[in-house]
Structure formats: structure tokens, C-alpha cells
Design a protein that fits this description.
Mean pLDDT: 95
CATH superfamily of the largest domain: ATP-grasp fold, B domain
Bound molecules: thymidine-5'-phosphate, aspartic acid
Order of helices and strands: HEEEEEHEEEEHEEHHEEEHH
Distance between the termini: 8 Å
Oligomer: single chain
CATH architecture of the largest domain: 2-Layer Sandwich
Largest sheet: 7 strands, antiparallel
Number of strands: 14
């Protein structure tokens, strides 16, 4: 994305695989202990990987989307882990200790919470709702209350939970604006936080249509992973559409 690739390829040298998840691989860097190399895969999974798919170029697309969105958030003074884009599917990021908490912000009810309370999908909310889920494949990422998160020592203090909520709401404000400017309503999303070596909480992991619900303002059409989860078809086309709309509007301003 406008960076000098040869220069970056010389600067960062990929080391051993540290971790492989459903959608990403994380590598060490040979020459930098404080950074990691994050490679986005073409795979697409849902329902704790019970449903699997992929499309060619998805890794590069989600890499590009995450990079653009993080640059935008950076301009809004949101601290995040991204350093640079490298090759076509990878990012160089600060090494952080990921807090095993999925932080979900909802602007309208959809998905699991709509289902849980038998409320209409798309029901408006008076104010954005923040929910926490414990990041555990084995337990299938259960909902956790504040007290449960403290009991499980996912975070150390109630103050940290409050800080995470406030930070997530701030991210929501900026993401809503970013998407609204291209005719997309941000229904909900999931983010993660990591602790850097100074103990600071910073935004980490991806922000892509895999972890957001994005509806076209005019038509209500779904432009996110629900197309895959619910077999709605045109997954690749709609991910590409999100990228094209955001790129056309924001790429120049966010570099
Ligand atoms: P939910 O309605 O299934 O709880 O999902 C809320 C949002 O969080 C939705 O945008 C999808 C995203 N999400 C993830 O990114 N990863 C997950 O494991 C889950 C369950 C949801
Ligand atoms: N992200 C989760 C998975 O990959 C759940 C989901 O998105 O439905 O399994």
C-alpha cells in the first residue's frame, strides 16, 4: 500500500512460525524481538471452524482492509499494533500479549444476542452495547460477565475492564463514521486488545468483514461473513465491494 516493498523486505526478515490460527499465521522476526509477522490466510471459517471455506486472495484482501482501517484509526489517535504492510498478505505488528477477551460492540442487535433474547435481527439499540466473550476454542468462546472475567483472571481489575469498554466505544465511533461515509452501516464488530511491553492496552488483531456485521445503508444487503455463515452466496464479491468502497474513499487520506 504505497510502501517501498523491497526496502521493507530487507528490513524485516521472517523467522519461525509461532502460532497458526484459523485465519492467520504469526511468525517471529529474525532481527526484531519486539515485532511479529502476521500472515493472513485465504481460509474462511465459522461456528468454531465447524464450517470451512476459502477463496483465493482473501488473505490479501483482509490484510489490506485491516491495514487501511488501522491507519484510519491511528489518525484518530487510537493506539494499535500495526507497523507496516509487507508482501501481499502480511503485516508487521508490535508483539503484544493478547488478552483472551473478544470485545463485541453492537449498534443494532444481530447474531447471537438477538437469538439469545428472541429479539428481531436489526433491532435498534438506544446506545451501543459492549459484550465480552472468553476467547477459548475449547469452550467455544462463551459470554462472560465482568465478574466472571475477573474470576477467570482474564483481566486483573475492574478498572481494566472499564478501560477496555471505553476504548471499544471510541473505536466504534470512528469505525461507524468510516463505514457510513461509504454507505455501509456498522451493525456490530469484535476486536481484541493486547498488552505491550510497557503494560499498555493496545488494539490488536484484525478488523475485516470476518469480524464485523456490515449492511448496505440503502438496500440492507449483508456485506460480511454472514454471507458465508448463512449460505447467502457472493462472499468474495461482497468482501471485495467493502474493500473497493473503503479504498476509494479513504486510501489517500490514510497513508
Ligand atoms: P455474534 O452475534 O455471533 O456474537 O457476533 C458479534 C460480532 O462479533 C460479529 O460481527 C461477528 C464477530 N465475531 C467474531 O469476530 N468472532 C467470533 O468468534 C464471534 C462469535 C463473533
Ligand atoms: N470466528 C469464529 C470461527 O471462525 C466464529 C464465527 O465467525 O462464526 O469459527
Amino acid at each position: 500500500m504505497g510502501t517501498n516493498t523491497d526496502e521493507l523486505n530487507n528490513k524485516y526478515s521472517r523467522g519461525n512460525l509461532l502460532y497458526e490460527g484459523k485465519a492467520k499465521k504469526i511468525f517471529n522476526l529474525k532481527n526484531r524481538n519486539d515485532l511479529v509477522w502476521v500472515e493472513y490466510k485465504d481460509s474462511l471459517t465459522a461456528f468454531n471452524a465447524q464450517k470451512r471455506g476459502s477463496f483465493l486472495g482473501k488473505g490479501a484482501l483482509n490484510r489490506n482492509l485491516t491495514a487501511l482501517i488501522y491507519k484510519y484509526l491511528g489518525l484518530k489517535q487510537i493506539k494499535h499494533h500495526l507497523i507496516a504492510s509487507i508482501e501481499s498478505e502480511s503485516l508487521i505488528c508490535h508483539r503484544v500479549k493478547i488478552i483472551p477477551l473478544e470485545v463485541v460492540v453492537r449498534n443494532r442487535l444481530a447474531g447471537s444476542t438477538a437469538k439469545k433474547f428472541k429479539l428481531n435481527e436489526g433491532a435498534p439499540l438506544k446506545k451501543p452495547l459492549v459484550e465480552f466473550f472468553y476467547k477459548s476454542d475449547e469452550l467455544e468462546d462463551p459470554f462472560v460477565s465482568d465478574d466472571q472475567a475477573l474470576m477467570l483472571q482474564i483481566v486483573e481489575t475492574q478498572e481494566q475492564l472499564e478501560l477496555i469498554k471505553a476504548k471499544a466505544l471510541e473505536v466504534n465511533k470512528h469505525l461507524r463514521d468510516m463505514f457510513a461515509a461509504v454507505g455501509i452501516e456498522l451493525i456490530d464488530f469484535k476486536i481484541e486488545y493486547g498488552k505491550n511491553s510497557q503494560g499498555e492496552l493496545i488494539l490488536a488483531d484484525e478488523i475485516t468483514p470476518d469480524c464485523c456485521r456490515l449492511w448496505d445503508f440503502k438496500t440492507g444487503e449483508k456485506l460480511d461473513k454472514d454471507r458465508f455463515r448463512r449460505d447467502l452466496g457472493n462472499v468474495e464479491e461482497k468482501y471485495l465491494e467493502v474493500w473497493n468502497r473503503l479504498k476509494d474513499r479513504w486510501e489517500k487520506e490514510s497513508i
